[in-house]
Amino acid sequence: MMALEDLVVREEEGSKMEIDIKNKAENKLIFIVDSVDVSFLNALRRICTMEVPTITIEAVEIYKNNSTLFDEVLAHRLGLVPLISDLESTESILVPEECDCEDHCPRCSVSLVLKERGPKIVYSKDFSPTDPKIKPVYDTIPLLKLGEDEEVELEAIAQLGIGLEHAKWQPTTACAYRYYPLIKLDKSCEACGKCAEECPRGVLEFDEKKNKIKIVDLENCSMCKTCMSICEAGAIEVMPHEGKFIFRIETDGSLSPEEVLTSAGDILAGKSEKVVTFCKEGGS
Amino acid sequence: MIPVRCITCGKAISAYFDEYKKRTDNGENPKEVLDDLGLTRYCCRRMLIAHVEVW
Fold it and tell me: Which residue, of A47, A120, A144, A244, has the fewest CB within 10 Å?
């Protein structure tokens, strides 16, 4: 961030944005962002899915395989196995494009050896990685089945890459945002309770004591507007809350959602920095 | 063999297949097993429900 240091940061622009974590599980994060625009959030989302690097098996050298699974099918399956690729374990590994070797070398790759003899089911836990930190996220992924006297012996080469090149390098599975819903109830409401009855997601409830419609689960609203079309008095209105979003990110376990977002923020900052340097120095 | 990942969203569903199969074979309700395993999206759920292990 050297070029940005002497730049006057417009704090008030950034500080308006508010983030509120709603749900957090092992590989899942749901949060509500307020006071942002679609363009920024979409940039972040696209970087999360497409440009955050992870490590995945890229090449497989098969020395022996007389199982019923063809070499290419096996190699394809191996490529889809998510490997732990947090910053700590991947920081010493070079990106293949930056390495000066021709194909792959120990500086830009990690190898995982698999040597098994049937009859058995070979699982992802059977890999013996050369770097103990780079190993499959899940131990229970079935890779292939071996029958009597069937053998498999191979070396898998894992390299860093991004989702733009191949979907196997995407750290995220579900990564999306939607507008925060806004429901307006008008005074002309006749308290017929039809909207609460028709709502497919249980967002509205009819309070018989107060003879009023109540919003019970606003964040579950999908803005289908069924309530609007059923209301004869036209007293209910559903619309997106401008500048407020529900962001949901789920990863395949190679990185945590927080790591993906941090990394995405870094990449976006790096890109912005390039623009700043270009404007100040007239390109490189 | 079950596909390694969900064809639609990319979740590594094959990691849960052994447990799913074991539990449903023991007579548990597939719906409850899937909920318990944390497979909430219907794309991932159909991967396990519709899979037939041929060999």
Answer: A120
Quick one: angle between helices B30-37 and B42-49, nearest 10? Answer: 130
Give which of A16, A7, A24 is closest to A257, Cα–Cα: A24
- pLDDT winner (highest mean) among A60-64, A96-100, A205-209: A60-64
Which A residues, 249 through 278, put their C-beta within 8 Å of a C-beta on chain B? Answer: 250, 252-253
Average pLDDT score, chain A: 90
Question: What's the gap in Å between the CA of A167 and the closest CA on chain B?
Answer: 9
d(CA A269, CA A260): 14
- A:B CB pairs within 8 Å: 49
Average pLDDT value for residue range B9-24: 95
CB of B43 less than 8 A from some CB of A: no
**Cβ <8 Å between B12 and A82:** yes
Inform me whether the C-beta atom of residue A30 falls under 8 Å from chain B C-beta atoms. no
pLDDT of A200 higher than 70: yes
Domain span at A87: 54-169
Mean pLDDT score, A235-258:
94
Q: Are both A45 and A186 inside the same structural domain? A: yes
Contact A250 B18 (CB under 8 A): no
Number of domains chain A contains = 2
Q: Name the residue among A141, A145, A173 with its Cβ closest to that of B15.
A: A141
Average confidence (pLDDT) over A109-122? 93
Instruction: Looking at the structure, tell me whether residues A75 and A137 fall in a common domain.
Output: yes
Is A2's pLDDT higher than 80? no
Is the model's pLDDT at A141 over the cut of 70? yes
The pTM (predicted TM-score) of the whole model is 0.86
Instruction: Examine the domain organization and report whether A176 and A225 are in the same domain.
Output: yes
Neighbours of A119 (CB within 10 A): 10
Instruction: State the Cα–Cα distance between residues A50 and A57, nearest whole angstrom.
Output: 17
